[in-house]
Amino acid sequence: MIIELGHFSLILALFVACLQAAIPLIGAHRRWPGWMAVAEPAATAQFLLIAASFAALTYAFVTSDFSVRLVVLNSHTDKPLLYKITGTWGNHEGSMLLWVLILSLFGAAVAWLGDNLPPTLKARVLSVQAMIGVAFLLFILFTSNPFLRVAVPPFNGQDLNPLLQDPGLAFHPPFLYLGYVGLSTTFSFAVAALIEGRVDAAWARWVRPWTLAAWMFLTVGIGLGSWWAYYELGWGGFWFWDPVENASFMPWLFAAALLHSAIVVEKREALKSWTILLAILAFTFSLIGTFIVRSGILTSVHAFATDPERGVFILLILAVFVGGALTLFAFRASAMQAKGVFAAKSRETALILNNVLLAVSALVVFTGTIWPLAAEMFFGRKLSVGAPFFNAAFTPFMVAIGLLLPLGAMLPWKRARVGRAARALLPAFGLALAVGALAWTMQSGRSTLGPVGMFLAAWLISGAAVDLWSRTGRGAGRLARLLRLPRADWGKPVAHAGLGVTMAGISAMLAWQAEDIRVMQEGESLQIAGYELRLDAVNREQGPNYFSTKASFTLSRDGREIATMLPEKRVYPVAQMPTTEAALDNGFLRDIYVVIGDPQDNGGWAVRSYYKPLANWIWGGAILMALGGFLSLSDRRFRVAAGARKLPQGVPAE
Amino acid sequence: MRRLILVLILLAAPALAVQPDEILDDPALEARARDISAGLRCLVCRSENIDESNAGLARDLRLLVRERLVAGDTNEEVVDYIVDRYGEYVLLKPTVDGANLLLWLAGPLMLGAGLVMGGLYLRRRAAASEPETARLSKDEEARLREILDD
Hints:
The complex is a heterodimer of chains A (654) and B (150).
Chain A: H1 2-30, H2 33-36, H3 39-62, H4 69-74, H5 81-86, H6 92-113, H7 119-143, H8 167-170, H9 172-196, H10 201-232, H11 243-268, H12 272-295, H13 308-332, H14 347-379, H15 387-410, H16 418-442, H17 449-470, H18 478-484, H19 487-512, E1 514-520, E2 525-528, E3 531-542, E4 547-557, E5 560-565, E6 568-572, E7 577-581, E8 583-586, E9 590-599, E10 605-613, H20 615-633, H21 636-640, H22 642-646
Antiparallel strand pairs in A: 1-10, 2-3, 3-4, 4-5, 4-6, 6-7, 8-9, 9-10
Chain B: H1 2-12, H2 27-37, H3 56-70, H4 75-86, H5 100-134, H6 138-149
Helix pairs in contact in B: 2-3, 3-4
């Protein structure tokens, strides 16, 4: 019964979404307040209905209702409760339901928080948001219905993919979707502005928090995914340039660009049409990401749920929305006249450069991702594009961004004297050079990657510190003023320093990690990067829904014991899949990473151990970036948007 | 129960990436083998290289790479040997030839285009400033002349 109710409320949500898409749009066009006002309750109702539907599905998973096909395919009574809950979205149908749930949540949030939006803009935004909802609700109901029953319920389910039974991966999709789908809001704002034919500072101020929120969630989602890969896949890789990873990375890059260009629109009323285009592109790439993941058109490790028919449907959605938005853009872009005037040496220029680098790097990732497809279709060549290509083609962009960022961030608006900003940054630059040189001398003739990465990281971090310090003015009491700075003033340097921290982690790990592969008998020890690792024992154990081979290692340095490490190899009998559970000793400056392998003929065990310098910095930096976004988002000036409210609905673009 | 566990574990046990028994005695050769392996795709996997993959085929390829190295092949010869047998699909880094030039040049070309477009926009914006500051009304010009003449 509950399942049918869930199914029914999903269908009802579709009808509500249809109303929400049509009526406010007409109302906004004809200036009928009553029709425009439909949008708000409709958005709330749509959200509640989809939430009820999602709750029904979760209920089916938690109670192991094996009359539901999806539960049979993806759950098992022996599974721990947490993974029964997360199993709701650990499959195609459930994850699409989560997608529309988040979509309607963002729609409802615009309705709830958008009191200061002009009524026509608000009606149009909610209408566009509902159109996306209609498309995806249709997609779910016609191609991926999670509520289908089975005629003869089996005794037990087929279990969730064991790789997904992990806290890191369990919460990776919701965050990623909050990011992906959050970009739908900026898309809706962009399309609504195109319909209105008006983009001004107030519009940018309304859009920026949504972009910031989406980007922040994407950052966390991508970070979680990469952290999961690091400890779960068994050799400590953290990024594989897999099509599905690229699918989440491209929207992140575009959202980062959009974040910066929206600042120019807000402060200087320039870059308007470019910002609109970016907003459209960012969501386009979210849809492309969905398409890549859900169609399985590009084979990848993440192909949990792939089906070409669904791919065609999403492609259709993509064509309609992107095609429609771009057509609208082509007609209206000329109406977006820039107002702000600025010299070549200015913050505006720096931000344009930032946008060029971010957007082109995203397009490079895109080109590499679809190249195998293009090469096969047009040139009949079956080839691969993998990590070596992306490392070579993408890294230069990040190096350029790292080099330019601290200087660009310090330039004043409108007209800048570069020399002045450069003088303030001189100590930071000196420090960075020193750090780079130190890294160079300490390593023994290996690649330039490590020193360059350390230089960039130190330059970014100390540059961010200088930037923050420069906001405290002159004279006494600077420290006190530092603490009283508005949160957005903190957000920017924190996020920029986070990028530096991540760069440090990536380059140190790639340049200086040490690896040891060998056969060990119980009681034997090995040396890695100055640490001693002793294999004490190997035991067989049984978990709730798996069997395990568990090894016990003692990690010590200079005879002092540091930690006991317990790597495991698990076999999930129902899913017939093995997983490796690496043991990690996390440290500020390094991780020690141990994996237990197969038993050998002579009674020993294959053991792989790694020394991974600065590993945690990769995700620490991601956390800092997200924190920077959060600080800016929580700034009072954003929340109030008081200036915008008092403006008589902005100024029309001439 | 214990035997069942053991049987299950042995049945499903994946070979974990590079195995201890695969490693060559000569560290220089082994380093070259690892280097080559990182650029070769595991054909049955999604986007893993053979150095990281657990698949049986990846192990066969790893052993093949080492066999060729021991036989005295250069790195290029080893890669060519494998490409001859498995096609260019095994290369994770596409060759720089023919249509692939498009792929490799895409980045620099797009960057160039982006910079040119950004530059043009900047010039327009900077030029837009000139009339605003340069344009004075007749009265102002007269007043300016007065001041300058004084």
